[in-house]
Each structure stands twice: as C-alpha cells, then as structure tokens.
Amino acid sequence: MDDVMDSETPMERSGRASGEALTEELLDELLSAPSPAAFAEEHAIGHRTLPEYLNQLLDEKGLKRAEVVRAAGLNETHGYQIFRGQRGAARDKVLALAIVMGCDLVETRRLLHAAGVNELYCKDRRDAIIIFCIDRGMDLQRIDEELYRLGERTIGD
Length: 157
Prior knowledge:
By secondary structure, this protein is an all-alpha fold.
C-alpha cells in the first residue's frame, strides 16, 4: 500500500508538524491493538466530513466563509451549501477552496478525501502542476495561469 513507506515523505513531515501521527505509527498501533474498534475509539478515528473540515480550517486560519467562497469563485449560495453540507462539491471546487484558504499539501489532501473525490496524483500531469504550485504557496490565479500556460484545464473552468 502506498501509505506505508520506509521513509517520511514531505507530506508526512508536514502532517507531523501539525501534531498528527504518521501513517506508519498509526499502522503499528492498529496492528497491536486488541481490536479495530478499540483502536478507532482510542484515536477518535472516524470519517471527517467536508463541512466539518472546512469549518475547522476557517477557525484555525482565522478566515471568513464569505471571503473564501468569493475568492474561490463559487456562487455564494452554492458555497454556503457546501460549507453547511447541504451540497457536495466537485474536485476542482474543493481544490479552489483549499488554495484560497492557504492549505498546504496535507490539508489539501485531507479536504479532497473528506469530499470523497480523487486526491492529487503526481503521475497525472495536471495534478503534478497543481501539487508543485501549492507547495510553493501560489494563489489560485497564479496556479490557473500556470495550468493555462502549460496547456492544462484551469481550476476555475
């Protein structure tokens, strides 16, 4: 499985910095636990919903929902419905939200996972460009410019 690696990836180091255990460490604990239920209870593991994680990030980053929705180029009603969990979000909408919220690669991956959409995949050309740009802290406009310049579909389309 790709999540179990011999060495720490940049994304794992970033996750460790935010106080979350590495996948390897959690796997070791899971395998030594008396049951999967005991492990899940001990680590408060459950499925984090997109609205839960979006609102958590808003709080942590001191952002306003209206500003994030506007900056992501979302229709105001649609944006609020995503934040309330009344409506799902397409992958590019989640990416736009992550980028305007200043998410790093780990937070972006978690948002995509919470939304139930494909995570960024470095073997996909478009995704590789997006990963590169997020890692360098580029804003949504700059990322779209890079995608356009390199002949890829922009996030805002």
